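INPUT
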Amino acid sequence: MALDSQAVAKIARLARIKVSEEEKAHYAHEISGILQWVEQLGEVNTDGVPMLTSVSEVKLPWREDIVTDGNQQEAVVKNAPASDYGCFVVPKVIE
Amino acid sequence: MTLRTLTLSAMRDGLLKKEFSATELAGAHLDAIEKINPDMNAFITITRDKAMDMAKNSDAKLAKGQGGLIEGIPVGVKDLFCTKDVLTTAASHILDGFKPQYESTVTTNIWNQGGVMLGKLNLDEFAMGSSNMTSHYGPVKNPWKKKGSDAPLVPGGSSGGSAAAVAADLCPIALGTDTGGSIRQPASFCGIVGIKPTYGRCSRYGIVAFASSLDQAGPITRNVRDSAIMLNVMCGHDAKDSTSAPIAVPDFEAALTGNIKGKKIGIPKEYRPDGIDPEINAMWDNGIKLLKEAGAEIIDISLPHTKYALATYYIVAPAECSSNLARYDGVRFGLRVMPEKGNLNDMYEATRAAGFGHEVKRRIMIGTYVLSAGYYDAYYKKAQRVRWLIANDFNEAFKKVDAILTPTAPSAAFGFDYKPSDPVEMYLNDVFTVPTSLAGLPGISLPGALNKDGLPLGLQLIGKAFDEEGLLNVAYALEQAIGFKGKPV
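OUTPUT
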């Protein structure tokens, strides 16, 4: 699958990464090359093969559904670029 | 001989016999780091005050005959582990100024057992790379150089700073992480030992996530014994990571008997592709010969889906990375770029455009694409099925053998000037390490030989899931037989 600049623009939008026109063309070239390379997997017959969902055959442990942590408001917002009253501050989203 | 050239186990013995103190040990390393690091760039952050406090604490414990398994031993930490109140960057601009308010489980285990933190080590941005060239903090110089040349070489990646620091005697042990080869390939490039344990052996809590079904922590050390000691410290179930295995951790150091008589070692024919460097082939053949002389039985095996491992990896890993890296949005930590009169979406897009490097952006976009509606089945599901076949190849092989021997990487360390125009060429560095990662198996790299340029080449041993004991013992026997003495000049 070869991608064009328009397809890259769409992916970049989905990934929330701003790309310039020049970058779009560059990424289109690079990503197309990688996609063509991974398409070799088409040679492998995977009929009836399950998807690998976990590499270890260990049963994941369960735990009680109880509160194990909390009262960390100060620590949670400590690294925020902007915070006020213990909340994250973002640009206005509702008019 | 200086204190800095000692192995971890020799340092441990010296501290117990009071031949030197933890403070002297930390001081010697910090002085060397401050002298050498401005050129080498292995450390992003040096934590001198913290190190000296921890070392004093260790000396007090040792004086009372107390202390943990590595009491007073200096440790370098890959800057992918969250360390409380200490800058943690993942070598990315987007984590500018990030000081975690919690400590990763693996580093907690290390401090609980007496480790002394020297600082945070350089890496490829978000651990995505095989050369350490994608770091926002610049490349790391490998302490090894080609004979008769002064041109800088890469230390490999992504744990490039960790491997370079251990090879240059800036720390006896360093923490790394391995997603597709990021411990083993740099260990190979720097002439030292690195082990990626079985997926689930170490907790991933507090490790900046890249590809969660592959990421695993491990030590980079001078020898196999030191790796065994470090696994004793690092491994164990952690309630904070549901994928960490709830199974008992054996004494890995006690498993090092050096006796491998009757052990069956598999040699996969697929790891000898056309055009492989003859020096690497020769090193591999020598490893086979030495294991045979040590009493092991050599068995030819086949891992038929090996050639599809890299392509599988470059669907699965970017898919997981695009999901994991969605958290960097300029809201909760790190960099925020706010375009004038912009809205929330503009802020996300501008922050991520400025904060991520080229390689990371490309992987996020590939991951976004292969997970997007209409392409998910053709790419992601297909890759997860092939991944099952790759894991199954190993399952079948391990019915016949106890461990598998291969080269670690298809080349020795390359120069800073190696910049392939096709990204796939760089990905080929991990051709021998990625299959193990996809199958979640433990793999260790140890120095096999020096090539004609005087650069180290690594041998990889692959073990059964959760059989690090058996794997380390074969590695230990092979290490003794090879007797590698190379050091960078």
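end of record. Chain A has a mean pLDDT of 93.
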